[in-house]
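Box S1 | Example of a co-folding query
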Amino acid sequence: MNTKGLSLNTIPPILIPLRFFLTAPFFGIFAALLILFYGPEIWTSRWLPGPLALTHLLTIGFMLMVMIGALYQFIPVMVGQLIPGGDKLVPIIHPLLIVGTLSLVSGFLLAINAFYWVALIALGMSTAVFGMSLLPLLIAKIKDHLIVFILRILLVVLIITIGFGLYMLLAYAYPNADIVFREYTDIHASWGLIGWVVLLIMAVSSQVIPMFFVTPEFSVRYLKIASLLIVMTLVGLFIMDKNLLQSDLFTLLLQVSLSLELGFVAFYILLLINQRRRKLPDVTINFFRVSLTSLLIAVLCWWLFKNDFAVPLKAFQIQFEFTMGLLLIYGLALSAIIGLLQKIVPFLIYLNLQNLSFKHPQSMMAEPKLVLNMKQIISTKQSKIQFYLHLISFILLIVSVYLSQIVFLAGFFMLCNFIWLSYCLFRGFNFYKNNKKEILTFPEMKMDFSI
Ligand code: HEM
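Box S1 (continued) | Returned holo structure for protoporphyrin IX containing FE
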């Protein structure tokens, strides 16, 4: 592992990030159960309650949940400063995010107004509190760290995505107000799935891949330019979408440049992954390969469907929409996030046990060792099982969009994928609790500053 330039002593109490990581897979389990409950009907139309609930169980319940936890863990290690107020604010942010997601999903599924209101308040508050707690760090003059740069842009993109989401939710919650919102759904979806997800993958990969897989460092300049270009292109497409400017040629140019930018990001990261200096096989890197390949396939699919190239494909419009959603959410985002969890949870546990054992030095002599190495916390075999469950469920989900009979099989494998993830994370947490208890039985080293 390459830990050059990291502040390994600045880590938050383990439960701050871990509670987000341990909760997130449950939303994946709910999502899989939803697919099993609806069966082939889930892929009938993207506007139905089932798909809307499914989308947000995965995007807010899983993705946003892990992102917040990962930022609480990574920002201190990367920039040497804790996110202010974590111990007081996380007990507010975390339950509000759970309540908000569950209410939003219940609102979609049961069409009960009260749920929309609860979701509006809980999601609005949790994201606002989290965003505001990040602000001091983001506006401070921290050394020019790539993650801080991308995070600044990421936060703006997330505010736009969530802003549109909350605005549309207001329309659901208050139907008498006749708020026109459907014209914003695609903007909300594309800022979320292309802006937020792609920038998140860039931020995560640029930190995690060189560190855990010992690849060459990411070029700060390339990623800064790519992230700015992606956001500027999305702004351009928004302007064209709202007919503020009318030019088919300009729209086409923007679409081509967005495809090139996304293609560049995917190829660039894949290239660095292939230049790994450590040649020992590591299955977790395959999660990132699947993630970036999904992005490339999504770009190709988009051009294929939009332009009716080889065969008339308009008849497959509904399937196209679900294919894109699955490629971007399950393929691009979830693959990278599940891969990330396989690395950062063992790292977090290892780091906490190690720091604790420094305070109780005699515990370091204990046999078997109480500070477990990362592979003992989530083993290679466990990661392999996770990877195959994820890959099989991903392929089956895509196929089930076209061949609806296999949707139950797809849902079943997706369920296994998230149950297995949950099992591995809780098992790691159990190791931590037991070994911490053992370490604490050894006498604490008192610092004696007297001369
Ligand atoms: C506070 C957070 C959020 C709220 C309140 C929210 C709310 C909504 C609402 C009300 C809709 C339905 C729009 C309609 O009926 O036309 C919607 C659609 C959608 N949202 Fe969100 N959203 C949030 C976060 C996100 C995030 C973070 C993402 C993605 C990364 C996302 C992706 C989508 C997508 C893809 C759709 C379209 C779904 C479809 O076509 O089936 N949302 N959102």
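The chain has a mean pLDDT of 89. Residues 46, 51-52, 55-56, 59-60, 64, 104, 123, 127, 161-162, 165-166, 168-169, 172, 182, 185, 188-189, 192-193, 196-197 surround protoporphyrin IX containing FE (CB under 6 Å).
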